[in-house]
Amino acid sequence: MFRHAFHSLSSAVADAPKAAVVFLSAVAEAAASAVAAAATVAAAVAGGARI
């Protein structure tokens, strides 16, 4: 039983960095999308468009 618990713990620790990379990648992608959307709105407003 102890060996199984230790194996599960070591597996979870090994997978944690991978999950962090996926999460940070999603955050960066969302931030880039938000910046692109804000730039599009700003350009439209600067061009005289009503939003």
Q: Can you characterise this structure?
A:
The longest helix has 45 residues, at 2-46. Helices cover 88% and strands 0% of the residues. The relative contact order is 0.07. With 51 residues, it is mainly alpha-helical. It has a domain at 19-51.
Strand content: under 5%
Q: Indicate the structural class.
A: mainly alpha
| SSE sequence, one letter per element | H
Q: Give the termini separation.
A: 63 Å
Q: Identify low-pLDDT runs.
A: none
Secondary structure tally: strands: 0
Rg (C-alpha, Å): 22 Å
Instruction: Estimate percent helicity.
Output: over 70%
Mean pLDDT: 81
Largest sheet: none
Figure out the total of helices: 1
Q: What does the overall shape look like? A: rod-shaped
Give descriptors for this structure.
51 residues, mainly alpha, 1 helix, rod-shaped
SSE diagram, text form:
Elements: H1 2-46
Care to give the gist of this entry?
88% of the residues lie in helices and 0% in strands. It contains one helix and no strands. The protein has one helix spanning 2-46.
